[in-house]
Amino acid sequence: MNIGRKIYYEKSTGNVLVDTGERSGDVIETTQEQDFESFKSLVQRVPESVGVIKLGYGQYGEDFAAASGYRINLDTEELEF
Question: Record's superkingdom (predicted)?
């Protein structure tokens, strides 16, 4: 099974809080509730203040490989590399 990455970001700034990365093999997809319990940078956050973008497996692969950083454009709610 292949699972795409989830990118959690701060709704007020567009700064990325967590990138779950892509996973493949014997893996299961986690819920947002599970992610908020598992990732240290999400545990203390109010869920309503955090946005999430879910990507398909391999989506933007070349962009991630070439980028030195990225953020979320708050107007379009899309990635900016």
Answer: Bacteria
